[in-house]
Specification:
single chain; 132 residues; alpha/beta; two-stranded antiparallel sheet; 6 helices; 23% strand; disordered C terminus; Response regulator; CheY-like_superfamily; phosphoprotein
Length: 132
């Protein structure tokens, strides 16, 4: 059975190369076209050109906080789903969700936690669970 759907665009905004690579491996090939940038400035540039279905957004970036960037994302792309990722700030979860994040993952998170969040937001149950 071949699925000819257009891949969904996923943007990873994170300055940790290892995490970007891992997220890319976990999501790639599941009808998702994954790209990543390492700063808010680059993310802003990308979002003025593209409209991703999903953004995985780290909170601590070299040029600011993901939580502060959420308002820009939601203003420019209200339909885009955002999963906020943070390893340091326990209190960030409430603020992130209040500011427009659709889900929150605390580092370190498991493959199944990532897949569950993606499935819930994009409705890709059958595409992503097979790799869990």
């Amino acid at each position: 059975m071949t699925n000819k759907t257009t891949p969904r665009k996923v943007l990873i905004i994170d300055d940790e190369g290892d995490l970007c690579l891992l997220l890319n491996i976990l999501l790639d090939g599941k009808d998702m076209e994954v790209e990543h940038v390492q700063s808010i400035a680059k993310a802003e540039e990308y979002l003025l050109q593209e409209s991703p279905s999903l953004i995985l957004l780290d909170n601590r970036l070299p040029d600011g906080f993901g939580i502060d960037f959420l308002s820009f994302v939601k203003k420019e792309h209200p339909a885009t789903k955002v999963i906020m990722i943070s390893g340091v700030d326990a209190a960030a979860q409430d603020v992130a969700l209040e500011n427009g994040a659709d889900a929150f993952l605390r580092k370190p998170f498991t493959r199944s936690q990532l897949h569950q969040a993606v499935n819930e937001l994009l409705g890709t149950e059958e595409a992503v669970t097979s790799a869990s």
